[in-house]
Structures are given as C-alpha cells and as structure tokens.
Amino acid sequence: MELYRVLLVDDEEDIREGISRKMDWLGLGFSLVGEAANGQDALELAETLRPDVILTDIKMPFMDGLELCRILTDRLPASRFVVFSGFDAFEYAKQAIQMNVVEYILKPINADELSAVLRRLKEELDRERAERRNMELLRSRYTENLPILRELFYTNLLDGRIEPGTERDRAARLDIDLRGEEWAVGLAYIGSDNSRDALSTLSVQNLLEETLTADRCRLSLYNDWVALIVSLTEAFTIYDLIRSLDRACTLAASYLGLTLTVGVGAPCRELSGMARSSAEARTALEYRSMVGRGQVIYIGDLEPDGGPVLSFEEADERALTAAIKLGNEEEIRQAAAALAGKIRQANPAAGQYHLFLMELVTHLLKMTRRSGVGVEEVFGTDFSLPMQEPALPALAELEDCILGENSCEAAPEQQKEEAGGADTCGEKETAPETAPEAPEAAPAPAEEPEPEKEITFSKKVITERDIIEANRDGVKVIRITERNILTALAKDAASARNIRLVRE
Questions:
Q1: Structural domains of the chain, count
Q2: CATH no. for residue 253?
Q3: Residue 323 structural domain
Q4: What is the CATH number of the domain that holds 72?
Q5: pLDDT, tens digit, for every residue of 254-271?
Q6: CA-to-CA distance for 83 and 66, rounded, in angstroms?
Q7: Is the Cβ–Cβ distance between 186 and 228 less than 8 Å?
Q8: Cis amide bond preceding 348, omega within 30
Q9: How far apart are CA 308 and CA 290, in angstroms?
Q10: Are residues 352 and 469 part of one domain?
Q11: Position with higher pLDDT, 178 vs 263
Q12: 114 and 6 in contact (C-beta within 8 Å)?
C-alpha cells in the first residue's frame, strides 16, 4: 500500500515528539517523512520532500504557520494543511479558513481527534488519487487511439459527414491543424488489387510525406486510396501540387517498383468543400484506363464545367445504319465524321465517352451479326468490348475522324491519287500553275531561320497542364497523332500561348 507523506512543523519539541510517537501512522495510511521547528526550515523541507499533508503550528519564529501555508499553497497546490493553535489565536484561525486550510485543531492536541482528521484526509486523498489514475488511464487510451480518431475524422470530412462550420473545431480537438486559404484533395491509387499490401501502402505514404511538406499536406488511408488533403497558397498552387505529385509517381516507379496514379479534385475555399473535391478526385481516377496509369490526373484538365451531355441517340443510330446499308464509302465517312464532331462538341467526361463508344460498338456488332459477316472480319481477331479501355482500334476510319480536326473529311482513294497521293487533313498545298524559270545566276543562299521547337506527346489525353509545361520549355509546335485527344482547356491554352497544333 502506498502511504501518504506527512511533514510535522512545530516550534515545541515535546509536541512534535508526542505527535510522532503516539500516532499510528502506518495504520492510518501515512508516513511521517520530516519534522521542522519553524516555518523557514519547513519551507525548505517541503520543497524537497513534497509531502501530501503538512501539520503545522501557527505561532513559530522566523516564519509563522499561516505564511508557510500561503507560500506552499502556490508551490504545492496538491498538499493538504492541518493547523494547530491555542484558544488565543482565533483571528489566526479565521485567516487559516480563508486560505483553504482543511482542518483547524485546538491545542492541546488529542491523538484521537488528530487520527479522525487524518482518516478523513486519507479518504479525500484516495478519491483524488483514483480520479487522477482514471484521468491518466483515459488520457493514455485517448493518446493510443488518437491515430484512429484522426483517420475517422478525415474519412468523415472527405465523405461530407461533418456539419459545415464545425470542421476546424473538431480538428483542433484532435490536434489537427487545418488552417489555410484553399484546399485540394488527392487520392493515390497503387497499381492493381494484386499489388496493394500494407508494405506498399506504407512505402507510398512515406514517399508522399517526403515529397510534400508536413505543414502543407495531411495524409490518411481512405478506402482503397491514400488520401492527401493539401493546403494551397499563392506560392504553392494546384499546378505546383500536380508537379510534386508527378515527381512522386516517377519515384514510386523508379525506386519502389509501384505504379502510382493520383487523382486530384478541384480546389475549395471552405472545408465543407472537401467532399466535393474528394468526389472529383475519384472521378479523375476513373480516367486512368483512358489517360494511362502512373501519373497525376487533374479533374480540371479533363472535365471543364458545362457543355452538352454526350449520348448515342436513336437519330445517330438511324443515320449510321442508313449510311452503312444504303450509302457509299463517302457517305459512311461523313456519318462517322458527324459522330466525331458530336464527341468533340460535347467534350465528354470519361464515363460519358466510355458509354457512348460501348453503345456505338454494340450497334455495329448487331449490324454485323444480322449481315452474316464474321466479327473478326470487321473488328479484327483481337477485338473485345471496351469494358476497361474505351479504345476501338479496329474502327480505324471512324477513329481517324473522331481524333481529327473539325474540318477533316477523309477523301476517297481516287481523290488522293488525283492530289498526288497526299493524304491531307485541313489545308492543302496547291501547286503553282506554271513553274518559274530558273534564274541565270543563283542568288546567295539565304540564312535559314532557326527551326521552331516541336514536341509529339506519347500520352493519349493532352491536358491544359501539358500545354503549359510545353510552353515553359519553349515549344512552339505540338504534333498531334491519331491516337491523341486534346481537352477543351488544352486547346484554349495552346491558342492563348500561340502554340500551333499540327495533326499528323
């Protein structure tokens, strides 16, 4: 049993000796750890021994008992004071009561009375000790569970399950700093289901923590992703974030052997907008089959606000059917070009684009089956419905038109031959009516202008961010292959920066 510590203070030695000898300290649950003959000595002992209970006389040389209690109340607030005094010290007694002295005993001191006082003190001290232990236990459990509570907070925040306006207060109670002007949510996806494990997730978390500073980014496990809640400023914009995450994707592939894809939602100025930014980050990840894995996909590059909704309607079906069944090659190309123009005008989201192509292919499959033609003759031997990838490599002619400029219409073969075999899209070079005569003396060769810097993207979807990065590198010409898709924002960015888009 842990004993409570007692300091006895009285200037009369016989009184100290009598109290020390007559009291059953152990039976009462106490231990007499020190004695002092005046307040000054008692003050020094108390600061060293730190007793739980101080028994002190009032009238003493150098420093009286009341002054001792006053000083030790500040220095040892958990200690209890019991004051001894004679009948002639009533004014002292009133002062003692005002200083929260727990007991006041008149001299001569009775052992039974003092024992009763000590028993009451022990009960009080026991209750306080139990409360402290309970609080320490609760504090320990709270500290142990704090990471879980923080993860739960982040999950509720990203799901929109926290009452708007209370986010910062709830975060502060969990020691989470969410001060900032603007925020964006990113969701990091690690490879495939087979490549995700606890070690890979932990490695990616550490990599992201090293790439993004701790005061700017909060990381959390969120369903199948590693969620990033990032504070944005004028010095660290959404595009700075994307560049940092691009570097993390590269490092994950180089050093960890993991394919890391990060979807990023649009910034928000209120913490209540985290749910929307999180949903946009999930939508951005849905583009990974079309855009490609192992990179950052920003929703703002792929889904500009507004615009018509893309759908394969009954009128489209009738027009395509009529062109295939009744028209010639040129009419079929025109029907395909009309569908391509519809796609370009809608600038669809990934889900809309995917559904449109699936409906188109399904319609063509029905026509193929009804015509008695083998599917492999039309679509190729390796054809499968685009359940994951919305690409249709077997429909080359349709795809050429879909991926071409608005003014592009494929010319029949005989037109190509008449044009000298050139397969052009857009402007054609016209030969002069008559060739100029060769000059008698060739002029001095003019200095050739420095060629413009060009670039050809290997990625399928070219975003606004790609255009901005190319402009920073001094690129003046971007060559677009038949496999490239330009977002609406990318086209606007190229036009604003006087970058020529040349389709090959």
A1: 4
A2: 3.30.70.270
A3: 314-418
A4: 3.40.50.2300
A5: 988 999 999 999 999 999
A6: 8
A7: yes
A8: no
A9: 21
A10: no
A11: 263
A12: no
Establish if 11 belongs to a structural domain: yes
Return the number of other C-beta atoms located less than 10 Å from residue 504's C-beta: 9
Distant-in-sequence, close-in-space partners of 362: CB < 8 Å, separation ≥ 6: 385
As a whole number of Å, the CA-based R_g of the chain is: 42
pLDDT (tens digit, 9 = 90+) per residue, 72-92?
988 998 899 998 877 565 566
Looking at the structure, tell me whether residues 320 and 372 fall in a common domain.
Answer: yes
Is pLDDT of 296 > 80? Answer: yes
- Whether 359 is in a domain gets the answer yes
- Pair (195, 234) in one structural domain: yes
Cα distance between residue 5 and residue 80, in whole Å: 11
Average the pLDDT over 154-176 and give the result: 91
CB 155 within 8 A of CB 220: yes
**Secondary structure of residue 382 in the 3-state scheme:** coil
The HSE-up count of residue 184 (CA atoms within 13 Å, CB side) is: 21
Burial of 418 (C-beta count, 10 Å sphere; 0-12/13-18/19+): exposed
The one-letter amino acid code at 4 reads: Y
In Å, the largest CA–CA distance within the chain is 141
Instruction: Give first-to-last CA distance, the chain, whole Å.
Output: 90
Q: CA distances (Å), 155 to each of 76, 174, 275, 462, 499, in order?
A: 45, 14, 10, 32, 43
On whether the CB atoms of residues 355 and 339 are closer than 8 A, the answer is no
In 191-306, which ranges are E strands?
217-222, 225-232, 260-264, 296-298
Sheet holding 30-36, edge to edge: 30-36, 4-9, 53-57, 80-85, 103-106
Looking at the whole model, is its pTM more than 0.85?
Answer: no
Task: Estimate the share of the chain in helix, then strand, then coil, as percent rounded to the nearest 5.
Answer: 50, 15, 35
